[in-house]
């Protein structure tokens, strides 16, 4: 595939007044200019919250009427129901309104729909049940504006209805008592693109203000921040202001349920960016609604009891793991269909009656991204007669319009240009597929090239902690204000360590031999080591325990014909005859590398592969787990001297290794079950993660433990047990024995390798 990299507004001189508005920082001014913000006053407001004038609660049409209706219901001790939705926006909206109303009345209940039996939005059966429970006021959140029939029923049952929603206004509005929707504001209003939760926040703020309790609305900012990122709303105007103020509250949340969830997520790395919310928090909350019930995350967000919140957070995390396993299987099966039957089609219509309805949307997105074509994934409902589907599309194809052209075969469809949902009868699936494939052939031009737009071309010497802080100041980033992308040409890939999930952990060097750590997620199984490439990347941080280092996240990598530069120009000193304490102090300004059990190393301040930085000297007290980690350490530190000591060796005897592993597991499971990072176990034991898995499998076969892998198999939860050995114990024992023999041979090889040979060993 041909890749074209375009530097946006390359050669355009940024106006001086815009640079001044960006506090004299031309880089930041260029980021705003590239995103269409060319008015100095607007840029100044976006950078400095104190200059921004927030939207007033009374700017929303009928806000006072909504407050009066709720106050009246509270005063009459009437029962109030909050009616939400099953995604992050709906869950946070529901929790927000329930918590807000809970400050004022005990007569509050809520309902979030079941994705599979009710679908999105309000349901007439639910309205009937709420009426039977004595509910006299229904307040919707993140839904309702298109539910004409359901609101009509509620009114016929003499219930009051306040709709709070943020979706597009339909031609016919429901007969609610009040509709609060930012889309009712005039075009161009700074609050017109609020999330559903942000709309609920404004209602809560107005209601609490009427009770002289407005300060309590600050308690909801963590929920608002989550919704703004998860619902992918445009981050300008009011949304940017709310998110900028909400993110610090979210990351330092006092909410018991979120603290429980965060404790699971951030074992070794701290949540601190918008991407952490998008890729770590939101998928877990969404998973509950996809795999089970969205009541679970609502209850977690409302919980004040740590033990109960911990249990719910654990359940949510498990559902997310289940979601990922199901998702991987669907994607694998879908890719097989494409490769075998559909590769030449302009739109990919894929069907399996067994695919999970709650997951096909995510899978469609992945297929669309992989093949750069619109993808429609279809599955069979429980009734055996109805097909449901999710569609995802590229920027240049409006999938909603494509479905509209074939709507004669559809029972229902809806969505927007890049994502849509649909349903049809089972007997119509072939006719629908043929029609939309034929239409796509005529309408869609498939271009076998990729256009990548970046903000600027950089050399690595520009990238340091100050550079990262400047980028952070221009944030938050997201929809409509995308994170900056940069280009560096002729980058040498000095090392490329590929994880079991095909993540690439790299050391990269530019033409001036400035070196940085880099990662490429899901980069495939082929190594880039030794190649010279042009890379497009984001600048971020990698946090491990109390250590934070700069890290590039590579988005695109394009191989060139360049020649790799020498990766190590220093000298190698043989200190294998020295005591460990002497070796550690042989030179000043040294990084001392050690991986293993801390009690075995008498030297303070050692570092693992996760904590490396530039230094004049690199001392090896332990043998790195493999040649990739060895090179990674040398190339990342880029020292003038490498000092070989290797006086602390790993025990790779079968008994010794298992004793060490069992000791680690025993300590972590002292209170029941323990959750451990796989790479942490790898570093403690001095083996690759695959050998850790083999050892865990053996201990399970021996009846000593049981375990489950968690997020992307990077964590494992272990608990001890006492059971009879399984039938495959001898197979597991043999596999582990052979692996440990290989490790022992490698350690002996490195321990005894002649000093001059290490230069050869370090060649790329």
UniProtKB/TrEMBL annotation:
Nuclease among keywords: yes
Residues in coiled coil: 309-344
Domain DDH stretches: 79-225
Biological-process GO terms, alphabetical: DNA recombination; DNA repair
Family matches, as InterPro entries: DDH_dom, DHH_sf, DHHA1_dom, RecJ, RecJ_OB, SSDNA_exonuclease_RecJ
The UniProt record lists the keyword Hydrolase: yes
Signal peptide: none
Domain RecJ OB residues, every copy: 454-556
Molecular function terms, GO-annotated: 5'-3' exonuclease activity; nucleic acid binding
Gene3D superfamilies reported for this sequence: 3.10.310.30, 3.90.1640.30
Pfam family of the protein (one): DHHA1
Alphabetized UniProt keyword annotations: Coiled coil, Exonuclease, Hydrolase, Nuclease
Residue ranges annotated for the DHHA1 domain, each copy included: 346-440
PANTHER family according to UniProt: SINGLE-STRANDED-DNA-SPECIFIC EXONUCLEASE RECJ
Family: Belongs to the RecJ family.
NCBIfam families for this protein: recJ
Listed name of the protein: Single-stranded-DNA-specific exonuclease RecJ
Organism: Pseudobacteroides cellulosolvens ATCC 35603 = DSM 2933
